[in-house]
Amino acid sequence: MWKYLSKSLLGASVAASVAFSFNANAEPLAKDLFGSKNLPAAIEPASHGFYSKGCFSGGLAMAKDGPHWQAMRLSRNRRWGHPELIKVLTRLSEDANRDGWNGLLVGDLSQPRGGPMLTGHASHQIGLDADIWLTPMPNRRFTDAERENVSAISMLKNGTLYVDDRKWTKAHEALLRNAASYGNVERLLVHPGIKKKLCDTVTGDRSWLRKVRPYWGHHYHVHIRIGCPADSPNCKPQSPPPRGTGCDQSLAWWFTDEPWKPAPKDKPQKPRARDVMTMAALPNACRIVLGAPAPASEAAVTVDRPGIIPANAARATAVERFDPSEVLRRLSSGEVPIPSPRP
Ligand SMILES: [Zn+2]
C-alpha cells in the first residue's frame, strides 16, 4: 500500500512536476485511506484510539437481514463493528422483539476498518458505536432501494423540542431500557426531548436513565455506544456519565435558548477533523489495521443470527497469509511499519 503510494507519487512528480511541488506536503487523508477499504482487517479484534479518532481490526458485519433486524443504507457499507458490538445488537434485536418492537432497523455502525468517514459521523471510528432507528422494522423485508430511500420517523412534535405522544410508545421505552441494561453499553444518545419523555414517564427502576444522554439530533435514531472491550488495551475510554438519572438542571439547560443558538457568523469556521486528519493523528496501530489482509470473503465475517458469532472468523480466514501473534508482538514492542519516505 505505502509502496504503491510512494511509487504513484513519484510517477506524478515526473509527469507533472509543477503540480507535484504544489502538493509536496499533502499527506493522504485518513478518511480516504479508510473510506476505500471494503473489508475488515483480518487480524485479532481490537479497537484502537478514541471513538472520534481511531480504527479497529477483526470487524464483523451485521447481515443485511437477521431474524429480527434489517440493515439500512446498504450502499454505505457501514455495517461493521467490533464483535462485542455485534453481540449487543443481535441480543437487542431479540430482546426488543420480545418487548413489543418488531425488530431493529440498523443504521450506521463503522466502516470495515473504522477510521474517519468521508461523510457524516465524527465518531463511529472504533467499531463500538451504532445508530438504531427509532422506527420499528416493518412486517416485511424492505427492498434494497427502500433501504436507501425510506426515511426514519422523527419522534418530535413538528417544530418543537418535545416528543409527539402520538408517535412515542412503551415499546420505544422498552427498546432503550433493554439497550441500557447491558453491562457494556455505556451511553445511549437521544434528543433532549426523548430524554425528557423518559424522565417524565419511566416508573420503577430509573437508574438506567443515567446512561441515556441528551444530544443534538438523535430524534430519528438512538446512538448506542459500548465501552472499550477487554481485548483492546489501546482503546481510550470515555469518562462515565455523571451520577444520577440526569433528569435535572443539566437536562433543563437543553430547553433554554443557549444550545440552539446559531454559531456567530463572523467567527471563522474550523475545518472538520476528518478533513485534515492524516494517519499521524491516529494511533500507530491503525497503520497495521490499514495494511492487514482482508478475510477470504464478506460472508465469512458476517453475522446473520444471534448467538452465532464467528469470533475467530477473521483470524481463521487469514491465518495462512498473516500471523496475528506477530502483529501483537510488534504492537507491544511499539515497533510498527513506517511508510517509506516520500521521493
Ligand atoms: Zn451515531
TrEMBL record:
InterPro entries: Peptidase_M74, Zn_M74/Hedgehog-like. One of its GO terms (biological process) is proteolysis. Residues 1-26 form the signal peptide. Keywords: Disulfide bond, Hydrolase, Metal-binding, Metalloprotease, Periplasm, Protease, Signal, Zinc. GO terms for cellular component: outer membrane-bounded periplasmic space. It holds the Pfam family Peptidase_M74. Disulfide bonds join 199-247, 228-235. One of its GO terms (molecular function) is metal ion binding. This is Penicillin-insensitive murein endopeptidase. It comes from Nitratireductor basaltis.
